[in-house]
């Protein structure tokens, strides 16, 4: 059984092309089902950064042709941007994808869920079941054993991570939004997914007194107005601090020019970050992710090697099964021949003879079985399987 | 036997201290190794204390060095309750070097020996010394939490680009944990002091420096709780007060050689 991968990603195709081959869940399920006809297995992984078709088939060439044709049907221009991988290379690619190592932002976590969904929607059998389960395992292992996914990869997630560094659990924490730019909305959304609550979105028409009133109670202020100058000065914040009874205040200034007075930094219990601070933090964490990616690559490579050993062993499994069946057949035939003598034995004695002969067969076949599997992993599996078939006369049993 | 157990305990605590230093530079394997160092070192020290207890028919930690040995064990025990969890690994940087150094000091002072005989009953010694030392261990942990708070607060103010690469527990969490730890420790110290005071009165002994500074320590930590609960103290101010309280703990444990149990 061959594993075939045909696909395109942000490495090979611009977004204009990728969006034309991107598939909704139902369409991905249907395509997988169509490609899995004639006893094949198929999974279609489609995200905003990639569309990939995984097929398991006895005939790798034909499976690849059909996968290419299916994607070209969606968009003929995509053919030149398609990559085609087989067997171990395809598995390694999938493991890297699941671990987030092939993502635009190394280590991003969303892809693992997308791989899981694609697997669930696919038409799978022994090979794809194995390779996808192992990919999910590799993805989880990378996240558990490295810090690749721990650091924020965007300004908005950095703001949320900073809030967690100040407040811990963000459940019940409150946010004041000054202005509503795209990045500040993303930052607020990130905070809300962690349990924080927006209490006021202030714009130029919002009453100043209301803003100051809210300032006395909120935990996070995110500012991104288009105002030409400072919107919130240190004096106002200082006045509010007396009412806060020592509660910390995180202020995130995403505006250029800045909305928040830099002198706020000097106030006790106030932590002010502007856009430059956040961008420096993100650059640092991304560089940290790249370092962690080296460790993640070795984890993924080890998993890919395990898969290779298992996949290669499939080449010798039929020969091993035939050999064992033949041995069992001989054992039973010989026992039948000796039935005249064995018939005089009682049940216990007969059971002992059965067990003894079965044990001899198992012990004799154990080492050849292990050696064949080892040879399969080293690419000599087919030769060994042929030799075993020839030596034991198993040709007719294929 | 106690000697044999002392060295593994010291080496493992030392390994943990170095490991946590490595964790601060690059989070990961060194932090995990340090955590195991704490666990195994604690087991070795527990065995050491058990050997000491078995060797002598009575309370073996009544001496200055012996009680320091027990104090180290209590500090590490308190840290083990939740300190080995990943977000709190950096706390080990404040606790484990101190534990390793104090263990060496305890040994140098003869803390691995059997201990001197005391005219006080074992029950009294267990309650009085045990409660006071447990409270001091709690204060030490609270001070470590406060030190971590001050360090983390400074980082958040200074805004280094690496502020999110090396994650420490959140400020609010550290603040709350320090308060909770003191809230558990102060009643233990109160009971320990009350027991000691009753005995003092009963036996017509004099108030020595150890008793006086221990009482002063109680006052500082009681003020800590009062200021936090009544005056709304929190954050850096409370952390500095906790560190000041810890200085008194150090004075009681190290600078005052007197032992009033013999």
Mass-distribution shape of chain A: elongated
Order of helices and strands of chain B: HHHHHHHH
Number of strands of chain B: 0
Q: How far from one another are the termini of chain B?
A: 25 Å
Determine the fraction of residues in helical runs of chain B and give it as a percent range: over 70%
Return residue spans of chain A where pLDDT drops below 50 for at least 5 consecutive residues: none
Overall 3D shape of chain B: flat
Please report which band the strand proportion of chain B falls in: under 5%, 5-15%, 15-25%, 25-35%, 35-45% or over 45%: under 5%
Number of spatially distinct domains of chain B: 2
Estimate percent helicity of chain A: 55-70%
Biggest interface, chains and residues, is: A-B, 30 and 24 residues
Helix-and-strand structural type of chain A = alpha/beta
Number of strands of chain A: 9
Strand content of chain A: 5-15%
Instruction: Using the coordinates shown, work out and report the CATH topology of the largest domain in chain A.
Output: Beta Polymerase, domain 2
CATH class of the largest domain in chain A: Alpha Beta
